[in-house]
Amino acid sequence: MLEKTNPWRIWIVSLLIAMMPLSFALPIKAKAIPAAILFLLGAWMLIRDPEARAAVRRARWVLGPAALAFAFWLVNVAIHGIDWREFDVTSHILAFLVIAVSFASPLRPIVLRIGFGVSAGVLGIVCLEQHYIEGIDRVYGINNGLWGAIEFGMFMLVLALIAVVQALRSELGRGERVLHIVCAALGIYGALLTQSRGPLLAFLPVFAIVVLIQSRRTGRWRDGLVFLVVGIAAAAGAAATMHGEVLTRFAAVTEEMSTYSEQDASGAVRERLEMWRTATMALDDHPLAGVGLNQFGDYARARIAEGKVNATVERYDHPHSEYLEWAVTGGLPGLAVLVLLFGAALVFFLRYALHPDNAIAMPAIAGLSTVCMYTLCALTDNVFYRPMPHSLYFFLTLGLAVYIGRLLNAVERPAAVR
Question: How far is CA 78 from the centre of its chain?
Answer without folding.
Answer: 27
